[in-house]
Amino acid sequence: MASSITNTNSNGSNGPSDQDVETSKGADGNKQLATTTTVAAELESSTKPNTLGAIILQTLGFRKKDSMDLDGIATQPSIWDSENVEEYKKSYIHPQWENWASFDPSFRWTWREERSVRRKVDWTILLWAFVMFACLNVHRDNISNAVSDNMLDDLGITKGDYNIGQTIFRVAFLVAELPSQLISKRIGPDVWIPIQICIFSVISGLQFFLKGRASFLATRYLIATFQGGFIPDTILYLSYWYTGTALPIRLAWFWMSSQFSEIAFGFASVGLLSMRGVLGYAGWRWLYLIDWWNPRGYFSDHEAKIIVNSVIRDDPHKGGMFNRQGLSVRQIWECTKDYDMWPLYILGLLFGLPKYPVGQYLSLSLRELGFNVVETNLLSIPYIATSCVTMLAITGISELVNNRSLVAMAEDAWLLPCFVALLAMPDPISAWSYFAISTVLLSFPYTHPIQVAWTSRNAGSVQNRTVSASLYNMFVQASGMIGANIYQDSDSPRYKKANTGLLVICIWMCLVQYPATWFYYRWRNNTKTKIWDAMSPEERDDYRQNTTDEGNKRLDFLFAL
Q1: Can you name the residues that pair with 558 across neighbouring β-strands?
Q2: What's the pLDDT tens digit per position in 48-66?
Q3: How many domains does the chain have?
Q4: Considering the entire predicted model, what is its pTM?
Q5: CB atoms < 10 A from the CB of 263, how many?
Q6: Residue 245 falls inside a structural domain
Q7: How far is CA 250 from CA 245, 255, 421, in A?
Q8: What CATH number does residue 170 fall under?
Q9: How many angstroms separate the CA atoms of 340 and 525, rounded?
Q10: Range of the domain at 210
């Protein structure tokens, strides 16, 4: 089953007053679309059976198990229930949309059937996305394991060269984001993603033959170039299978694959790095060579109809583009200059900045403090396992309180006291004290999945959602690029200047940036609501039918806070 758009439901928070579903005969599709999708999303979120998010909340004790009739009708209200359905098909469904055969507005299904199909999609689609992302993270992060086996000395390169390599990787990854997304939109993610995986896996294996600084920098650039865009490409693909309310928690599991891969590879690297001397080669070379090899689901017609109709009822815009349809330069530019998305881009740039230096230098720091190669790699596992728990917990809390601005602040709030502890450590540094503090620091609740879903919800249109996914991730990559150069040799081994700056960033994010983002979107919503409430019913009808406002600029669209 393939669909036609790029991300999750375009609706943010609940719309202004008078957001009821209009189904009068002859009503225009544009008039009904925004209101109907909002109501449908509300109904689904209030009546749907257990999702992964609900399971998390139940496990944490925040929510009781839902009691519901699994044989009740799960089909949600939509504009497709209108008498004008044939007109809407012409208005909102592209003639080349791949799912015409499965699309049936009169089709009905039960919660039991939907739950079964969702579970099947989870195990056949989400699982492989999970595996593919884990594969990417192994190739992206195995350098931290390699440097613990004296790779820098073997290649005759310095920490400065290592920083340059990491910067080149981030720059190439960032630059490739949007072009890769556009290629994926043109030829389809089902074609482009496997191509990406094959190419960067082969290049990663070729790192076995590294000879020095030039080959090290070249492979960092090439791997990043073909990995860039993989994340928004995969989110695009997942959006073909899930409704807007079902996707965010899947993204949390998607990103958790990074932690799982790090845990598994942390154990594997112990054995691989122990191969130092085999055939006369260093252990880190075997790490890269063996690591290069890493690796669609079938649905009945009935199951395909459930998937297609649940997704298109949730957001009729998802039929507006077909799987191989690209975006024009004008569309890209209009989306890029959407000022309402920039608060989220700024968050993407700053929120994770403090964590990068500590994580990047953990292996080197532990080695310098006297731990051997095996101990260093095993000591990196506890924080990875803990971060899986904290990420799922913060995702569950975000769903429980229906808030993003204040919940997403948790990551920087967690990091703040840890940097205070790092700065307060007495000289000489105790190896186990540093390990304890850095482990707690790196066990932070990862809020990136929350913010990706937040960006998607506030985009308000298919085109904007496509571009904003890439732009947000580009800012995150820029953050990593900056973070790769914060720790300098002149500030080692305590890095007091750097850690002081990172502490200031944590304070700024908690006291200024996140609250300012919340106030901005609240102000935008209040401004829209004030204008909307001042309109008469006739004026609102005229607005719905004739407005030139699009996406998140419509008065009947409110931003998620």
Answers
A1: 13
A2: 444 555 555 555 555 555 5
A3: 1
A4: 0.70
A5: 16
A6: yes
A7: 10, 9, 34
A8: 1.20.1250.20
A9: 11
A10: 113-525
